[in-house]
Amino acid sequence: MLKNRSHIVAFTMLLFGISVAAGFHYYGRERTSVSHTTSPQNVGPPAAVPDDDWMPSFFTALGERTQIVKLPSLRTTPTMDEKLEMRFWYDARPDIINGLVISRSATGWSAVGIRQVNNRWPSPVIQENLGTPKSGWDALWKQLTEAGILTLPDAQETKCVAEVLDGSGFVVEVIANQKYKTYRYSNPQFADCDEAKRVLSIESILADEFVFPQG
User: Fold this and answer.
1) What is the pLDDT of residues 128-182, one digit of tens each?
2) Is the Cβ–Cβ distance between 86 and 172 less than 8 Å?
């Protein structure tokens, strides 16, 4: 399934607050999928947290934003048996970190958007309820697991690195099966590897499934 330019521009403007100067554009890549068990409790536990050089600066900057909306750090949250949570962050430091949080608890599923009001930091940060995905929660999670949300390695582990000096990236955090996992892909639209295409596929799925508030 191909995405046109107007679709991705609308998504990035609504969820990620990207200005033209941010330099992130995604032109017509196809989704890549792989067969996975779709029931969250049957998916193998995520790998250990990588010790990569992007992590300290990113999570310091992320914490400055999430504390404004009182969103607890996922890395320090107690890992409960039934807890399932995915956070998908657009990382364009030092100016922008915005994202989407999907979680499942005993009371059901939820999705919220976390975004800066301004495209410069410091900025007010708001949290918005995104409602139910268009395909429903089970279908959404099936799409995300098939795209590799639980299994992708960090880009530095596989040397899936785009030769771009500036730009942006995506950071994923997941808690499933009482395990925490995180990974980052910088400028995946320019990286020639399957893992980068999967990250773009995840972004495409989220863009298709949610209606993001404007303003």
Assistant:
1) 999 999 999 999 999 999 999 999 999 999 999 887 767 799 999 999 988 999 9
2) yes
Beta strand residue intervals within 57-201, DSSP E:
84-92, 96-105, 108-116, 125-129, 169-176, 179-186
Tens of pLDDT, residue by residue over 16-70, are 443 322 333 332 333 433 333 333 433 444 444 555 789 999 999 999 999 999 9
Dig out the tokens for 142 from the structure. 């099936």
SS3 160: coil
Q: What is the CA radius of gyration of the chain?
A: 16
Integer Cα distance of 85 and 111 in angstroms: 10
Phi-psi region of 172 (alpha: psi -120 to 50; beta: other; left: phi over 0): beta
Please state, as a whole number, how many other Cβ atoms lie within 10 Å of the Cβ of residue 85. 17
Q: How many CB atoms lie within 10 A of CB 151?
A: 18
Whether the per-residue pLDDT at 211 is higher than 80: the answer is yes
